[in-house]
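Supplementary Methods, section 5.1.

A reviewer requested that the exact input to the structure prediction be made available. We therefore reproduce it here, unchanged from the version used in the analyses.
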Amino acid sequence: MTDASLMDPCIICVAITGSVPSKADNPAVPITVTEQIESTHEAFEAGASIAHCHVRDDDGKPTSDPDRFARLQEGLRRHCPGMIIQFSTGGRSGAGRARGGMLRLRPDMASLSVGSNNFPTRVYENPPDLVDWLAAEMVEYRVKPEIEAFDLSHILQAHRMWQAGQIAATPYVQFVMGVKNAMPADREVFDFYIRTVQRLFGADVPWCAAGIGASQIVLNEWSVTSGGHARTGLEDNVRLDRTTLAPSNAALVRRVAHLCDRHGRAIATPAEAREILGLAPSDDPSA
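The structure derived from this sequence is encoded token-by-token as follows.
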């Protein structure tokens, strides 16, 4: 970390739904597009400046349906002015190039997993040809990728792709820790991830981290106190503690906001988040 990065406002990303949590896990998980817009608006008012978005079909199952993404994006732009919209291209929502079919909608950002790894009950497959295609689509439609790094090799692969011109501008790398059978929440590894990103992309490059389940609040605090940015939300964790379900995405955002206040870091506005990430200003003059 650098002293300068600790002075930067902290960007809070809210992962609103994901592909796995259901209302059986927590009734607050937003499933329909209307629920997602309402939940994101509450999180936006609580301090989130990025919405990480998945969509579900009528049965509540994950899908990559571009029409649903379009409706969600339209609602978020209307009700959360200036908020950065980030679509997921994750592997639970579709197969092959269907995972990137919504990129032509030109969201501000999209997730990009550049390598494979184990998940709790399956292999999260990201074959090189698909990764290359998704990256090319993001370049074509001027969508900034967020590199989801489940392993050290993913950071190094992102650097190779950046050097080859497959990733435009400076990558925004997110460390994902706490997935069963993948990288646990390990502080020494976390610190090494930071040093590796700064060595490869520059000392002042922005980065983010996400913790899964009980690791969420742990990674939130590590990020806030290390000059990084924080992801929270019901996709990654449906609880406030072992016995208490989170009442909303906004409640999890407020928990990160409290950490920022306690450690003396401001919360990034959408305009500040756009500047930090090198994104174009919002078209909304009130943002």
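Residues 37 and 194 are 33 Å apart (CA to CA). These observations are discussed further in the main text.
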